[in-house]
Amino acid sequence: MHLFWTNWELMGIVTAAWRPFLDPLNLHHPWHAIALAVPLVTAIALVYKALKLPTLTELGAQTLQLTLYILAMMAVAAGVLLALVELV
After folding, report:
1. For residues 49 and 63, is the Cβ–Cβ distance under 8 A?
2. What's the pTM?
3. CA proximity to 30, closest of 82, 83, 87
4. What is the CA radius of gyration of the chain?
5. Which of 23, 45, 53, 77 could form an SS bridge with 67, CB 3.0 to 4.6 Å?
6. How many C-beta neighbours within 10 Å does residue 44 have?
7. How far is it, in rounded angstroms, from Cα 45 to Cα 23?
8. pLDDT per position in the chain (88 positions), as tens?
């Protein structure tokens, strides 16, 4: 009999929760990664603007502007990399 189990199912432990290191997210389709990038970029822009603006009266507009700028530059960078891969 083993003292240390390596397989959770052998121990009879069944979890309905997502286990990040045992069951990683399936991000093989590129749209899944893009869908997860939008909230991440929005959160980063919100925190950055909340720390840098002197008053928070324009926080929403400035956050939206920075979010769109970051996403646009990511799209441009992806296009340049795609062009480099296809041409080389």
Report:
1. yes
2. 0.68
3. 82
4. 21
5. 45
6. 14
7. 30
8. 555 555 555 555 555 677 777 777 777 777 777 888 999 999 999 999 999 999 999 999 999 999 999 999 999 999 999 999 998 8
